[in-house]
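Okay, is this right?
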Amino acid sequence: MTQTSEDVTWLTQEAYSKLKEELAYLSGPAREEVTAKIAAAREEGDLRENGGYHAAKEEQGKQELRIRQLTQLLEKAKVGEAPADDGVVEPGMVVTIAFDGDEDDTVTFLLASREYASSDIETYSPQSPLGTGVNGKKVGDDAQYELPNGKLASVKILKAEPYVG
């Protein structure tokens, strides 16, 4: 089975390693810590009015959600493989666009998962309105995406190069 670029999250080796470490911590020591908090709070008695118990259960729920998110992300991750330098916009590319074709009104960004982005460059998710609009386009193409107010915005793709962070 092949994955399309929309199914893949492109990660640097550094980002992948950090996420694997976070997953290992959350699945092991952090899970044990929250279980101990819940057990300690249970021993205090009446659970209906036990703030510590409810806080620990909420923490556990958030932690389990994060574990599921990381697991899914890492299953779909492409590590260390920059996309082809063919001018086609896809995750892992640094893209420069001009708003409404005005080459004086440009922005350059990395098309990648925001959570795992570099602090060196602004990052847009491929699932964001702008990311969806430009993904798959080529340098020189025009693209449209929907703004939060429902109007369409137009951009022109000026540059698309693999990220070398």
